[in-house]
Amino acid sequence: MHKKVVRHGIIAAGAAGATAAALLASTASAAPASPRTDAAKPTVVLVHGGFADASASWNAVIKQLQNDGYQVVAPANPLRGLPTDVPYLASVLKSIEGPIILAGHSYGGAVITNAAAGNPNVKALVYVAAFVPDKGEKLGELINKYPGTEIPDAVNAVPFPNQDGSTGSDLYLKADKFRSAFAADLPVSVTNVMQAAQRPFSASSFSDATEAAAWHTIPSWGMVATSDKAIPPALQRFEYQRANARGTVEVSGASHSVMISHPGAVTKLIKRADRGTR
After folding, report:
1. Which fold has domain 38-276?
2. How far is 221 from 245, CA to CA, in rounded Å?
3. pLDDT digit string (tens) for 232-245?
4. How far from chain centre, in Å, is Cα 171?
5. Among 27, 28, 53, 221, which has the highest number of CB atoms less than 10 A from its own CB?
6. Are 84 and 234 in contact (CB under 8 A)?
7. Which residues, 6+ apart, have CB-to-CB distance to 116 below 8 Å?
8. Is the pLDDT of residue 39 over 90?
9. Rounded distance, CA 27 to CA 256, Å?
10. Strand partners of residue 128
């Protein structure tokens, strides 16, 4: 039954004495360095997708962006479906002053597509192996537009109670399918931990209709993971072309978890989007 659900629905001063000076020097060397930020640069907001969390998805990209002087926010995507996740992200975006570069991975692409609509501070959308739906589209239909996804066969559906008394369905990637479908270019030791710590992803996310498509008015950039077994590369190319992306980068051999296996390429694309909208 879960297959049907998915298919149709699926970030000293100084010192007086020598002793005091030595103590201060020791303390200074032990203190952690604060990330360097540049107030003239936009804030980069990184939105993760299903089965994942902000830290595992974006840690390496966050570090690189911070080292380059960017303020970064990587909120926890609730993964409860578009009607919940979109207004949540929109509220996060409204709390940020100044220009924003908004990046989304996988299902996070659908969330940013909706949440950025009508927000004048969002200057660019960056899609990383992502869904880029148009208004009225459902992800369960998009994911089957081209062959190649392993997600329908890789998930277990687990029922959970909604607040209104109805029953929802959470999706989890099976232990023996996780690496192939989600992160085949990462070491087994890494994907084993990712699989164990995966977050539940509401199956309703695949049947929720997109209500707004911000890429119609906000410039976008896209990254294709050429060995993606979750969102087919052909679908990624189609989406980015349809959105008139100002730049598309293909990462050869990259799995769906391209932001973990190739953080440098993702960081470079985000910085390219920043330069392209100044």
Report:
1. Rossmann fold (3.40.50)
2. 5
3. 999 999 999 999 99
4. 18
5. 221
6. no
7. 93, 102, 122, 125, 214, 218
8. no
9. 43
10. 105, 223
